[in-house]
Specification:
Distance between the termini: 30 Å
Order of helices and strands: EEEHEHEHEH
CATH architecture: 2-Layer Sandwich
Oligomer: single chain
CATH superfamily: STAS domain
CATH class: Alpha Beta
Shape: globular
Radius of gyration: 13 Å
Strand order of the largest sheet: 1-2-3-4-5-6
Number of helices: 4
Number of domains: 1
CATH topology: Transcription Regulator spoIIAA
Helix content: 25-40%
Strand content: 25-35%
Largest sheet: 6 strands, mixed
Length: 120
Amino acid sequence: MSINHEMVQQKQIADVQVFTIQGILKYENSKDLKDSILGFYNQEANGFIFDLSTVTAIDSTGMGALLSFLKKTDGTQPICLVVPDSFLRELFSIAKFEQIFSIFETMEQAMQFIHGEGNN
């Protein structure tokens, strides 16, 4: 099943819920982003991936929307960010996001992690 909502596309790949987010994540659209991802939340999923491959910029409110999703979950399922852009990865590193999310360069790496092939 796949759902689109302007800047967020949501689909289920096996037992993993994948959010593909695109564009610039900033104050002006952070509430829409937050509402979309929280509205799509599937508590039955065994893991979550936020594919940020087509995100071109993000500010603190965009990051806050991702943190809001984390608060909605019960904390037992892994949450991965796919961030191929080195500049954006550096921003997430400065914000210490690697301490609360698993961050990968590719979707394949994130899927392997969720399915236990890289989280030992």
